[in-house]
Amino acid sequence: MPITEFLSRNAKLYGNEKCLTEINLDLQKSHNVIWREYELIENNPAGEYRRDMTWRVFDEKANRLANLLLKRGVKKGDKVAILLMNCLEWLPIYFGILKAGAIAVPLNFRYTAEEIKYCLDLSDSSVLIFGPEFIGRIEAIYDHIPKVKMLLFAGEGRPSFAESYDRLTANCSSEDPQIEITDDDDAAIYFSSGTTGFPKAILHAHSSLVSACYTESMHHGQTREDNFLCIPPLYHTGAKMHWFGSLISGSKAVLLRGIEPEWILRTISEEKITIVWLLVPWAQDILDAIERGDVKLEDYDLSQWRLMHIGAQPVPPSLIHRWKKYFPNHQYDTNYGLSESTGPGCVHLGVENIHKVGAIGIPGYNWQAKIVDENGCEVPQGQIGELAVKGPGVMKCYYKDPQATAAVLKDGWLFTGDMARMDEDGFIYLVDRKKDVIISGGENIYPVQIEDFLRAHEAIKDVAVIGLPDKRLGEITAAIIELKPGCSCTEEEIRQFCISLPRYKRPKKIIFDKVPRNPTGKIEKPRLREKYGAVGLVAAQTEVKI
After folding, report:
1. Are residues 354 and 423 in the same domain?
2. What is the pLDDT of residue 77?
3. What angle do CA 185, 187, 193 make, to 5 degrees?
4. N or C end of the chain: smaller count of CB under 10 Å?
């Protein structure tokens, strides 16, 4: 069954019910509008800062785009790229592409013009649908993307080199085009995060997307009464696959364009949000704002908020212990996944396993997992090896890259590149990325272990540990430390804090700096290696206040 059937079902059963709301903090900021004014214009027909959509309209918009694509000669299996910020149009466009039998190709909104061109070429995309934020980047390359035969612009201020998505789809039928789609048909191409160079194109079938619906539903038990707050970018598998729980249950979701703690809490309160998926930095920002007194929990009605879950990166146990202090009644879950495994859920902690905080968990619904050595053989319990997963959401391949595919897909198992260990209860703990392991004087050092330790320091907001070249040891560990606003700390204080670590794990260099993260919350360690390794180490200041 294709995933589009869930949308068609919801339109029939719940057609007049609201399914999506967009709250645009970026637009609000640009107009210098405060929250009270947002509340006053909530029912403004123009929908300037808050827009709603029903299931019927969602389905009709998807059908209109599907019929436009078919009318313009797009055939089953053709690729249609999406380059949009999170907005009310995003998901109807995605599902319209699928209903046409085409393959959706979401693009990272942070891509440069060169990266956009690379991904369009690699994916063989023949159509690109883009928004106002990307006019300049597309203008720079539109004469150099010959495979793209149609440029559709969604939004105000259409450039002359593109056609209007709104005008063209408005004149198309809102009836389902009834294209036959099977579970094995190709559905989407996602791109790896690109933290090690240009990204790989990850091809998924419809069966992968449907499996993500069931996995998310089984893990978090969405019902029609739930309302999901979606903040991360929809181009990424994580945000969208968590929203699939709303799709399968026919429940509401809110797209919030803004990550400030006050706006997150206000939205949860005003929109009666029940489920929130956060990235580690956002959860930390909320806690920091509470502890500074910038926000007061008694100002918000959060009684209906039942679940907070985190994914996309290792979660420091200290963060969750802090979270439970302020939100003791929340269910909590950690989700692990890759774009190659249809996003989150191939391993998850489970809301019933809060006592195992620090683990990424056990195999998810319909998934298997094992930890293997360099020869692919399972390692004894407690030993470190590479995590491999197997299940219905594993990608078909890296598109047009059989060599890369063969390196990670073996007998149906996806070799993740993540180093992990399993405890006596079968719970899996991430140790580090295989490529991030530091080898110093013959010892394997796993940066995540040191990062988790350092994040327990009361002055530290974020930390990244990387290896730097060393003539004698091969590599040494360097800790890049970002302090909380208003906090000060010295290098010596950090060294004293690390005294309980084994000597070989103690950072040899302490650097006070910002820790860069990509839109999905992952630390951009290649940027740090380039900054502090390739061009020489900048001496750390002995005392820094941020």
Report:
1. yes
2. 96
3. 140
4. N
